[in-house]
Amino acid sequence: MIRLSENKDREGIIALWQEAFGDSREAVEMFLDKRSLPQNTLVAEKNGKTASMLFLLDGKIKVADKILKTYYLYAAATLKEFRGKGIMAQMLKEAEKLAQDRGVDLICLKPAEKSLYEFYKNHGYNTVFATKFAALKIKSSALPGCSENCADVFAARETAFTSSDRFIWDKDAIEFAIYQHKYYGGKVFENCEGYCLYSVDDTVCCVKEISVTLQNALKVLSQIASAEQIVEFRIELPVDYPIDAECAFIADNGMALLISDESQFLKNRNDLYLNLTLD
Fold first, then answer.
1. Which is nearest to 23 in space by CA: 173, 176, 184?
2. Residue 270: inside a domain, yes or no?
3. Rounded distance, CA 35 to CA 176, Å?
4. What confidence tens digit (pLDDT) does each residue in 206-220 have?
5. What is the tens place of the pLDDT at every residue in 34-45?
6. pTM
7. Can you say whether the dihedral through the CA atoms of 178, 183, 188, 192 is positive or negative?
8. φ and ψ of 16, to 5 deg
């Protein structure tokens, strides 16, 4: 039986999550308490167990002057003993019906593995998101900059990517993504202009997201280079973000199930920006 989740499903969801993804109980409960909603969580119950689950997170897609109501499909998983029985296919259909009934234009997701693109394609999903992966070297600098924390992460992100067609998270979602990034050992550079989420491996800095304008991005990166003794940056960016890089390539970064008539034009797109997906 597939249904919306209830309080009684919590332990089953935690057990399934840990089997599928290997996260600590603390990490799972952090997500359940801060980001999930029972009315947006589907579970499949089999033999008294939570056999399968998926979460629908609220968001929007902005393309030019259009705003589309969107769900982001997250943490879809099935217990090992119930896999190969078509349960997830049924879950995806139920999620589509739920979204359609609620007037949601599309469901987005980021496949955890490249092989899953074909699986979701077989269930009607189109690849509409892409990311520019750029590598560049920036000289360290102690250039003076604003030392205050970012007052509004949502506003900073919207300003940084205002020209990009993109998935839009609300402020709570962005703040949780930053919190989770730090929980798993990531670092955050923050000032009044925005933020930069990154991790350091020796002298290489992997930037998950830099949400400042291009004018300020190089200054922020040079300050990080100085503080962390960085030689090279590897950065995830919107496809149209106009930063010069020694090396850059574009790769698929997510899919969407187009539900409403208003969303069908996205079949011809493969360049929308999607990030902070809690992966």
1. 184
2. no
3. 8
4. 999 999 988 888 889
5. 999 999 999 999
6. 0.94
7. positive
8. -65, -45
